[in-house]
Amino acid sequence: MEIKHPRRILVIGKPDSDISRVVKEITGSAPTPDASTGSLAGITHEWNVKTAYYTAAIPVWIDEITDTTAWKSEFLNPEAKEVVQAVGAWIYCFNSSDIKKESADDDAEVTISEHVEATMKAVAEVVEKACEMMWDGTRLAVDLTPANKGRSTINAEEICLDLGFEYIHIDATGKNEYGENLGMERAKEALEANEWSASSADDDDDEDNVGGMDDEQAQMNAELWGMKASLLDPDNEGDEEDDGKGEENHGFVVYAVEWKKP
């Protein structure tokens, strides 16, 4: 079965968190930074996935978070509700600057910083506000710190689990004591098992899609960044005529697009 209108993946992290590596591990190709800024914020990518049960071209949105409080405020805004509802999976990336160790020993117990906890709490709050208890998706927390076979990550795993995220170490390989995959193999496994259909319309012939998939894809990929640009520019009242083409500025598509559910 082809999923024609899949929900989105939103990958987030600080600018130094190597989001590009995570996206490449999942999709097989690295996203291209914005040519003018060198940033990945506002970039869209695509994951072509094929399983025994479905095929889909899943859009991957990328956002860089420099201020968690400001980011949360943007996404709690009513204008962001339908955008958040379009996200089927959240991937939060963090690195060694976000890790705490119980001692200086290389194999010391590892836990995560208050900043990481605050960001995961912010995501949970954003999803709950937009979707209430109806959201059915996947949330992954990907640790990009250098691998150390001797260290324990049980504490970090428990904190992530308590906040609704599955902890993934990007360099982990093999299986755990329960025979489950580790690392990015586990991440891809979790994403492949996710529910991507935006509505039951994916099970039927899409007779209403007269604009073609290219038009639909362009519109859907623009909606998040149009929303963010609108929120970041409080003086933008939408009085200027929209030529329908859009314009990129610092990683954001600067025209607002209304998301229409298929």
TrEMBL record:
One of the GO biological process terms: vesicle-mediated transport
Residue ranges, annotated region (Disordered): 191-251
InterPro entries per the UniProt record, alphabetical: Irc6
Biased composition (Acidic residues): 201-217, 234-245
Gene3D superfamilies membership: 3.40.50.11960
GO molecular function: protein-macromolecule adaptor activity
UniProt-listed PANTHER family: INCREASED RECOMBINATION CENTERS PROTEIN 6
Protein's name in the database: Uncharacterized protein
Organism field: Aureobasidium pullulans
